[in-house]
Amino acid sequence: xxxxxxxxxxxxxxxxxxxxxxxxxxxxxxxxxxxxxxxxxxxxxxxxxxxxxxxxxxxxxxxxxxxxxxxxxxxxxxxxxxxxxxxxxxxxxxxxxxxxxxxxxxxxxxxxxxxxxxx
Length: 119
Description:
By secondary structure, the protein is of the alpha+beta class. The protein has helices spanning 18-34, 84-91, 109-118, and strands spanning 7-15, 38-55, 65-80, 99-107.
């Protein structure tokens, strides 16, 4: 099948906690595989690191600071040519509260329009 006729559901999953992220990716992967579609991923994306320095005491020891880091880990999952059952099973997944998922439909405009309506 050529890539021009493919419809993909691209899911970007992000979380601060790596255990919850892996659990969410496994839930998405398993539910898509149960419906018999082709799944690519989870593909690790670069992590984002946010670093914040805070003064320990405001009046003395101006050079004394604490450093806090927030690391956001991300994964990418592609579901190729999803069926109706796939979209239904993806909407029924209960992801952990620490996980954020962005879903995008990519591909043939007529087929993608049908997939967007059902999702």
